Amino acid sequence: MAVVERIAATRAVTRKRKSRPERGEGRTAFFFLLPSLIGVTLFLVVPIIASVVLSFTNWKLLGQPQFVGFANYIRLFTADPQFWPVVRNTLFFTFEYLVLNIIISLGLAVWISSLKMGQRWFRVIFFLPTFTPGIAVAIVWMLIFAPGGFFDFVMGALSIHLPNLLTDQKLAMQAVIIVSLWAGVGYNTVLFNAALDMVPANYLEAARIDGASAWDRFWKIRLPLISPTLFFGTVMTAITSLQVFDQIYVMTRGGPGSATATLGYSIFQKGFQNFQMGYASSIAWVMFAMIMALTAFQFWLQRKWVHYDN
Amino acid sequence: MKLSLILATAALVGTSAFAMQVQAQDAPVNLTWQMWGDQTDQALWQSLADLVTEQYPNIKVTPQISGWTDYWTRLPVLASSGEIGDIVAMQSMRMPSFYSILEPLDAHFATDSFDVKVFEPSIVSGLSHDGAVYGLPYDVGPWLVFYNRDMFKAAGLAEPAMDWTFDDFKAAADKLTAGGNFGYATQAFDYIAGPVALGAEYFNDANQFDLTNAGYAAAVGKYVDLTAVDKASPVFASGASAVQASGRFASGNAAMYIDGPWSMISAAKGANFEMGIAPLPRGDGPSRFITAGSGFGIAAAGQHKEEAYKALQVLTGPKAAEILASAGRALPGRLAEQHFWYDVAAKDVKGTRETLEYSFEHATPFRLNETWNEFENLMTQYMPLALNGDNTTEGVLADIQSQLP
Fold this sequence. Notes:
The structure holds two protein chains of two kinds. By secondary structure, chain A is mainly alpha-helical. Helix content of chain A is 75%, strand content 0%.
């Protein structure tokens, strides 16, 4: 009994001795983390909470907000003639852009990694648009696609009769997607290219000796081995494409009609042009829910196709 | 001893009270002035701010200039966070959305028996809301037709008369459309100013949007047909701003477009041809034109309203109007100073004085409400569908109407 007590006492002392410096370290760590904590709280947590609260008010930027309950959400889902077309446009953009982006960037990455020389140059060239400001890119492309602009001139010279991209309901979104691809493909290309270079050469060597074709080596060795990177690229691209705004703001302002109106643009239009901050906040939360759902779906799906090599 | 002490104290109190009074009168006051503009305008606005200090040495006005689009995004944010300047620039079309952040000026007018009759009446009403004046104007102007005189001459067309009709306008646009050039370059605001000149109304009697009324739809349809049927104008894209039409006009690709005197000097400078201006074409009835303009108001939340009012009087005073008019920046809202614009800045453009005087004589109140901004944005976004034939004019107007509260 006494032994047990002694052991217990020793343990308590050890715990005490141990916990004192630990507590001190915790405090130090807290102060080291404080600057980021304040930043995150002020610029992330508070605005997020504020936007939840705002979405239940009719705040018009000027004047006092009034609590309106779920009125904004009810209007959004039942009364607003623009909401469902906007959701459809956003999903359409996301789907087409995501698929094309992944295919093109993967194709480019494979091509670059197969080059004997100049790999670095091509990586830089394709990465250039990524660090060009989005608004500047969109303005230049808008001038190219404008009615009577350079694109129309080239099409006319080639005797291809195409309506102007920016004024045609069906083609306007394609113009936005072309610009987004031009600006966004480089990032994934560099990402996938780096992943491809990490695939151990001896695996490919062994497969070649066993007689596997280049096609088989790609589908059965390289692709599964870069699948974690591919997954990361897909998730990030999906998230940014659901938030698309810059290109649309510059090139089409959601038009013609509602052909290119997306959730991101809708939030800006309702909030900062029509001054319906409460309503804009409720759209923002719908967008958040969509991004969450899509990301969760992708994480669920990854179990089927992503291989972690550990 | 006692008496001298009392006297000394009284004298001290007296002098310090006097000193305080003097100080109160001349205490330096710093006013901020919320204004839009680009880099090239900066010196001009600063010279106006300096006029204030010249007249009232204790008042210093500092312009805070932002770009046109950013200005309207920043303004409500500044107002709701209490950071707004003492003097606020305001455009007549945005008054219904923003009058609440401005101080009604009528009480101030009473203090110095100021009469707003020195200004063009249509812009005074443009800067008013519910009968109260909220701003004093620095510029004013109706929408006008800018035309290329050389192209008119080459096509053998007579230049537009003051009371030309829509049929005249259409005939000119059709005839001038040849060899890859257009008779006219359309933009979104044409479907607002144009139909009003034809006698149509976009509002009902309760000042609410009624876009599907037969008169307005027919008038918009007339303008739409110039592009959709006659192909006398290219379709405008919803994303590009007014640059498209003015660019086509300046390059000689379009013979006419609709704009206001605020852009006239830059349009004339960019053109290497002789330029003329004419009133908007009328319908079957008499001519009538809407005008717009901008001015300055006093922030309702400001700390120095009296000083701000003094500064406002200088900024919209005769000297300031002369500076802005001579530089071609603005056709003054002040009637007496308008000749500086006609005789100095606009001397090379044909028909400015006659056209503008005719337009002001036939000015009609510009009807606005608090959702005007939404309406203008929707027009820019949806009108291209009618112009390229994807939808009918009635269909587009019904679509826009359904989205307005």
